[in-house]
Amino acid sequence: MKNSFLWNSMIRGYACNGFSLKSLVMCREMLNFGQKPDNFTYLFVLKACGDILIRGIGRKVHALVLVGGFESNIHLVNSLLLMYFTFGELAIVRLLFDKMSLRDLTSWNTVIYGYVKNGEPNDAFLVFDHMRRASGIGDRTTLLALLFACSDLMDSKLISVDIICCVPSATKRYHAPH
Protein backbone atom coordinates (compact mmCIF):
# COMPACT_ATOMS: atom_id res chain seq x y z
CA MET A 1 0.00 0.00 0.00
CA LYS A 2 1.46 3.33 -1.04
CA ASN A 3 1.42 6.19 1.46
CA SER A 4 0.62 9.82 0.67
CA PHE A 5 4.33 10.70 0.44
CA LEU A 6 4.86 8.16 -2.34
CA TRP A 7 1.69 9.19 -4.16
CA ASN A 8 2.63 12.87 -3.88
CA SER A 9 6.16 12.14 -5.11
CA MET A 10 4.78 10.49 -8.24
CA ILE A 11 2.13 13.16 -8.81
CA ARG A 12 4.74 15.90 -8.31
CA GLY A 13 7.24 14.17 -10.59
CA TYR A 14 4.75 14.03 -13.41
CA ALA A 15 3.37 17.54 -12.84
CA CYS A 16 6.81 19.16 -12.71
CA ASN A 17 8.22 17.36 -15.74
CA GLY A 18 5.63 18.10 -18.39
CA PHE A 19 3.32 15.15 -17.76
CA SER A 20 0.45 17.04 -16.20
CA LEU A 21 -2.26 14.73 -17.50
CA LYS A 22 -0.43 11.73 -16.07
CA SER A 23 -0.21 13.49 -12.70
CA LEU A 24 -4.01 13.88 -12.73
CA VAL A 25 -4.40 10.19 -13.58
CA MET A 26 -2.13 9.35 -10.63
CA CYS A 27 -4.28 11.50 -8.36
CA ARG A 28 -7.37 9.60 -9.49
CA GLU A 29 -5.57 6.31 -8.78
CA MET A 30 -4.60 7.63 -5.36
CA LEU A 31 -8.26 8.29 -4.62
CA ASN A 32 -9.28 4.88 -6.00
CA PHE A 33 -6.83 3.25 -3.59
CA GLY A 34 -8.50 5.07 -0.71
CA GLN A 35 -5.59 7.39 -0.02
CA LYS A 36 -6.73 10.82 1.16
CA PRO A 37 -5.14 13.80 -0.64
CA ASP A 38 -3.32 16.37 1.46
CA ASN A 39 -2.16 19.92 0.89
CA PHE A 40 0.86 18.71 -1.11
CA THR A 41 -1.36 16.64 -3.40
CA TYR A 42 -3.50 19.68 -4.10
CA LEU A 43 -0.43 21.84 -4.86
CA PHE A 44 0.72 19.50 -7.60
CA VAL A 45 -2.75 18.89 -9.01
CA LEU A 46 -3.43 22.65 -9.20
CA LYS A 47 -0.17 23.09 -11.10
CA ALA A 48 -1.17 20.34 -13.51
CA CYS A 49 -4.63 21.86 -14.05
CA GLY A 50 -3.10 25.25 -14.82
CA ASP A 51 -0.49 23.77 -17.13
CA ILE A 52 -3.01 21.98 -19.32
CA LEU A 53 -5.91 24.40 -18.82
CA ILE A 54 -8.38 22.06 -17.18
CA ARG A 55 -10.80 24.43 -15.46
CA GLY A 56 -13.32 21.88 -14.28
CA ILE A 57 -10.86 19.78 -12.31
CA GLY A 58 -9.13 22.92 -11.05
CA ARG A 59 -12.40 24.22 -9.65
CA LYS A 60 -13.15 20.85 -8.05
CA VAL A 61 -9.73 20.86 -6.42
CA HIS A 62 -10.41 24.39 -5.18
CA ALA A 63 -13.62 23.11 -3.58
CA LEU A 64 -11.69 20.23 -1.98
CA VAL A 65 -9.16 22.72 -0.61
CA LEU A 66 -12.01 24.58 1.06
CA VAL A 67 -13.72 21.43 2.35
CA GLY A 68 -10.39 20.12 3.64
CA GLY A 69 -9.80 23.29 5.63
CA PHE A 70 -6.69 24.26 3.66
CA GLU A 71 -7.89 27.74 2.62
CA SER A 72 -5.39 29.37 5.00
CA ASN A 73 -2.43 27.49 3.50
CA ILE A 74 -0.54 30.29 1.76
CA HIS A 75 1.16 27.92 -0.70
CA LEU A 76 -2.18 26.48 -1.81
CA VAL A 77 -3.76 29.90 -2.17
CA ASN A 78 -0.75 31.08 -4.19
CA SER A 79 -1.22 28.04 -6.45
CA LEU A 80 -4.91 28.84 -6.80
CA LEU A 81 -4.04 32.43 -7.74
CA LEU A 82 -1.65 31.21 -10.43
CA MET A 83 -4.12 28.66 -11.77
CA TYR A 84 -6.98 31.16 -12.00
CA PHE A 85 -4.72 33.74 -13.68
CA THR A 86 -3.80 31.06 -16.20
CA PHE A 87 -7.51 30.61 -16.87
CA GLY A 88 -7.94 34.41 -17.15
CA GLU A 89 -10.41 34.47 -14.26
CA LEU A 90 -9.33 37.78 -12.75
CA ALA A 91 -12.43 38.28 -10.59
CA ILE A 92 -11.81 35.00 -8.76
CA VAL A 93 -8.15 35.93 -8.31
CA ARG A 94 -9.13 39.26 -6.80
CA LEU A 95 -11.55 37.60 -4.37
CA LEU A 96 -8.95 35.05 -3.28
CA PHE A 97 -6.24 37.67 -2.91
CA ASP A 98 -8.46 40.03 -0.95
CA LYS A 99 -9.43 37.20 1.43
CA MET A 100 -5.82 36.28 2.19
CA SER A 101 -5.01 37.10 5.81
CA LEU A 102 -1.31 36.53 5.16
CA ARG A 103 0.54 37.31 1.95
CA ASP A 104 4.14 36.51 1.17
CA LEU A 105 6.32 37.86 -1.63
CA THR A 106 5.18 35.00 -3.86
CA SER A 107 1.56 36.08 -3.35
CA TRP A 108 2.32 39.66 -4.35
CA ASN A 109 4.49 38.67 -7.32
CA THR A 110 1.93 36.16 -8.57
CA VAL A 111 -0.80 38.79 -8.62
CA ILE A 112 1.40 41.52 -10.12
CA TYR A 113 2.71 39.25 -12.86
CA GLY A 114 -0.71 37.67 -13.40
CA TYR A 115 -2.27 41.03 -14.10
CA VAL A 116 0.52 41.84 -16.56
CA LYS A 117 0.12 38.50 -18.36
CA ASN A 118 -3.63 39.11 -18.60
CA GLY A 119 -3.19 42.57 -20.17
CA GLU A 120 -3.95 44.60 -17.05
CA PRO A 121 -0.73 46.55 -16.35
CA ASN A 122 -2.55 49.31 -14.46
CA ASP A 123 -3.90 46.74 -12.01
CA ALA A 124 -0.38 45.36 -11.64
CA PHE A 125 0.84 48.80 -10.57
CA LEU A 126 -2.07 49.21 -8.16
CA VAL A 127 -1.16 45.90 -6.50
CA PHE A 128 2.50 46.93 -6.43
CA ASP A 129 1.55 50.16 -4.67
CA HIS A 130 -0.53 48.18 -2.18
CA MET A 131 2.42 45.80 -1.66
CA ARG A 132 4.78 48.69 -0.94
CA ARG A 133 2.43 50.07 1.70
CA ALA A 134 1.74 46.65 3.25
CA SER A 135 5.09 44.91 3.20
CA GLY A 136 7.61 47.25 1.68
CA ILE A 137 10.13 45.62 -0.59
CA GLY A 138 9.89 43.47 -3.70
CA ASP A 139 12.56 41.44 -5.43
CA ARG A 140 13.89 40.75 -8.93
CA THR A 141 10.68 39.01 -9.91
CA THR A 142 8.70 42.07 -8.86
CA LEU A 143 10.96 44.32 -10.91
CA LEU A 144 10.72 42.10 -13.97
CA ALA A 145 6.92 42.01 -13.79
CA LEU A 146 6.80 45.79 -13.45
CA LEU A 147 9.12 46.23 -16.42
CA PHE A 148 6.77 44.05 -18.47
CA ALA A 149 3.88 46.20 -17.23
CA CYS A 150 5.73 49.34 -18.32
CA SER A 151 6.31 47.88 -21.76
CA ASP A 152 2.55 47.30 -22.05
CA LEU A 153 1.89 50.94 -21.24
CA MET A 154 2.79 53.79 -23.52
CA ASP A 155 4.03 55.95 -20.65
CA SER A 156 7.66 55.02 -20.04
CA LYS A 157 7.80 57.55 -17.19
CA LEU A 158 6.39 54.79 -14.97
CA ILE A 159 9.88 53.28 -14.84
CA SER A 160 11.10 55.39 -11.98
CA VAL A 161 13.01 55.57 -8.76
CA ASP A 162 9.80 54.48 -7.02
CA ILE A 163 10.08 51.05 -8.60
CA ILE A 164 13.84 50.68 -8.27
CA CYS A 165 13.99 51.82 -4.65
CA CYS A 166 11.48 49.20 -3.64
CA VAL A 167 13.46 46.37 -5.21
CA PRO A 168 16.98 46.87 -3.82
CA SER A 169 18.07 43.26 -4.27
CA ALA A 170 17.43 43.57 -7.98
CA THR A 171 19.77 46.51 -8.39
CA LYS A 172 22.65 45.62 -6.04
CA ARG A 173 24.94 44.05 -8.58
CA TYR A 174 24.56 46.92 -11.04
CA HIS A 175 26.02 49.56 -8.74
CA ALA A 176 29.68 50.44 -9.17
CA PRO A 177 31.91 49.54 -6.21
CA HIS A 178 33.01 52.45 -4.03
The backbone outline, from C-alpha atoms, is elongated
Low-confidence stretches: 173-178
Q: Helix segment count?
A: 11
Mean of residue pLDDT values = 87
Number of strands: 0
Beta fraction: under 5%
What order do the helices and strands follow? Answer: HHHHHHHHHHH
Helix content: 55-70%
Overall number of domains: 2
Largest sheet, in brief, is:
none
Radius of gyration from CA coordinates:
18 Å
Through-space gap between termini: 62 Å
The chain-level structural class is mainly alpha
If you had to describe this structure to a student in words, what would you say it looks like?
PPR repeats lie at residues 3-37, 104-134. It is a single chain. With 178 residues, the chain is mainly α. The chain folds into two domains: 1-93; 103-178, no CATH class. Helices cover 70% and strands 0% of the residues. The chain has eleven helices and no strands. The chain has helices spanning 4-16, 20-32, 39-51, 55-67, 74-86, 90-99, 105-117, 121-134, 140-152, 161-165, 168-171. The chain starts with a helix and ends in a 7-residue tail after the last helix. Residues 173-178 have low confidence and may be disordered.
